[in-house]
Automatic annotation (TrEMBL):
Protein name (Swiss-Prot/TrEMBL): NADH-quinone oxidoreductase subunit C
A GO cellular-component term linked to this record: plasma membrane
Species, as recorded: Pseudoduganella rivuli
Functional description taken from the UniProt entry: NDH-1 shuttles electrons from NADH, via FMN and iron-sulfur (Fe-S) centers, to quinones in the respiratory chain. The immediate electron acceptor for the enzyme in this species is believed to be ubiquinone. Couples the redox reaction to proton translocation (for every two electrons transferred, four hydrogen ions are translocated across the cytoplasmic membrane), and thus conserves the redox energy in a proton gradient.
One Pfam family this sequence matches: Complex1_30kDa
Gene: nuoC
Chief location: membrane
Catalysed reactions, semicolon-separated: a quinone + NADH + 5 H(+)(in) = a quinol + NAD(+) + 4 H(+)(out)
HAMAP family: NDH1_NuoC (MF_01357)
InterPro entries: NADH_DH_suC, NADH_quin_OxRdtase_su_C/D-like, NADH_UbQ_OxRdtase_30kDa_su, NADH_UbQ_OxRdtase_CS
UniProt domain NADH:ubiquinone oxidoreductase 30kDa subunit: residue ranges: 32-160
Subunit-structure text: NDH-1 is composed of 14 different subunits. Subunits NuoB, C, D, E, F, and G constitute the peripheral sector of the complex.
Domain of life of the native organism: Bacteria
Keyword terms of this UniProt record: Cell membrane, Membrane, NAD, Oxidoreductase, Quinone, Translocase, Transport, Ubiquinone
Amino acid sequence: MSTQLEVLQSTLAAALGERVTVTVALGEVTLVVKAADYYSVMQALRDNAALGFDQLIDLCGVDYSTYGEGAWDGLRFAVVSHLLSVKHNWRVRVRVFAPDDEMPVLASVTSLWRVSNWFEREAFDMFGIIFEGHNDLRRILTDYGFMGHPFRKDFPMSGYVEMRYDEAQKRVIYQPVTIDPRENVPRVIREENYGMK
């Protein structure tokens, strides 16, 4: 008798064929998809009755530039999605790498799952990943005038600009960062009886 995980693997292989690479680790199935096949694979995952992944649970960006302590030599930016099939009680992770590190562009899946709208906007805002076909791709967490993408590994900890209220101008202004960069080192408590009552 085969397990539910084995049934899911064989169903995915039959439905998607060579368009995906299927891996299983820690009881979770991950599909790695090429950018050119991303939209069609996501549509098949949703529309194929044998799969029925009707819910997009999460979609996020990832910057692999320092992955493995710098040993990573693959593409830099990826989008990772988590899908759920309520009918079959299956979950699957889908990973797709943007083919260009300088201008990461992938297809939008907002026409398949409306919930991906804000997820894709967040990935755009934080990582600079552009989603082709997204009809409202604008910043969602940072200010409209914000420069850069703060979740990229090369973004400085203190940022590039800071904002403050200027009493003379009676408005909020932006200025270059005046904070000196520093290494954040946790405070070490060396008291013998610290935390003891």
